[in-house]
Amino acid sequence: MFHITIRKNYDELSREAFKIMKDTLNGDHTPVLGLATGSSPVGLYQCMIQDHKDNGTSYKDILTFNLDEYIGLPRDHKESYWTFMHENLFNHIDIPSDNIHIPLGCGEDPAADCIAYENELARHTIDIQVLGIGSDGHIAFAEPGCSFDSVTHVIDLTDQTRSDNARFFDDDIDQVPKQAVTMGLASIMRARKIIMIATGANKADAVKGMIEGNQTTDCPASILQNHPEVYVFLDVDAAGKLRLEGANA
Ligand code: F6R
User: Fold this and answer.
1) Catalytic (active site) residue 113
2) Which of 70, 113, 210, 235 is most buried per CB count within 10 Å?
3) How far apart are CA 52 and CA 134, in angstroms?
4) What pLDDT score was predicted for residue 244?
């Protein structure tokens, strides 16, 4: 079930998304957070940092699991998702490093690392999972064609994803890794609640496919139609192709 919020302004959208996150942070037990990288959740992470500074919200006992990591980039590479998460969130809150889980993309045996990650994930239930969506409909790096039953695995990135992400690699697609480790769609669906953030006209088709399209692995995000509690935060451009019924605009 989708709860859709549409705002013109990204900061406002991020503050709305943070309200859902804050409910979970203030809940009756210490939560497990599922986190995403990319542009979409940066404003939400800024709200979390501000709240930590202003209100002392503590992450000392919170566990986090990230969705994905490029294969082949060392952790200290400036575009690794390990670096992204530390720069955009972890370095600014009081989370202990042992509580942070990010798939390993630079190990000697990625397949074994995927199994280890999924096994660790299976020991916990993610209370709230943050997601963005790719212009090709991917969530995490579960690209079109990825099975709805998938768990953490190695995936070949589509040309579209590599082209979209070239902006982080000097606009040079050749620098963008060709593979990633990603949580699977079944792994993601186990989360109790989901926050999905999407902005920009280049996401409008994917957002329409996710919410109003047929459920198909051609649009991996359409699996979320089966999830009981998905909070979708869209700017006007990303919502541009929706019929908009029931949206909180
Ligand atoms: C990143 C991830 C991806 C991104 C998606 C959108 O951890 O899982 O699915 O959320 O590619 O990226 P942005 O937000 O940069 O448009």
Assistant:
1) no
2) 210
3) 29
4) 72
Tens digits of residue pLDDT in 73-114: 999 999 999 999 999 999 999 999 999 999 999 999 999 999
β-partners of residue 155 are: 180
136 is catalytic: yes
184: which DSSP letter? -
Distance 68 CA to ligand 1 centre (A): 9
* Residue tagged active-site, from 16, 127, 136, 164: 136
Six-digit token pair at 94? 């009081």
CA distance 85 to 95: 12
Cα distance between residue 79 and residue 211, in whole Å: 30
Distance CA(171)–CA(158), nearest Å, equals 16
Known catalytic residue: 170? Answer: no
How far is 44 from 40, CA to CA, in rounded Å? 8
Instruction: Write down the residue that tokens 């070949």 correspond to.
Output: 156
Nearest-10 crossing angle of helices 42-55, 10-25: 60
pTM: 0.96
pLDDT of residue 16 exceeding 90, the answer is yes
In this structure, the residues whose C-beta lies within 6 A of any atom of ligand 1 are 36-40, 67-68, 132-134, 138-141
Asked if 235 is an active-site residue, the reply is no
Residue 213 bridge partners (DSSP): none
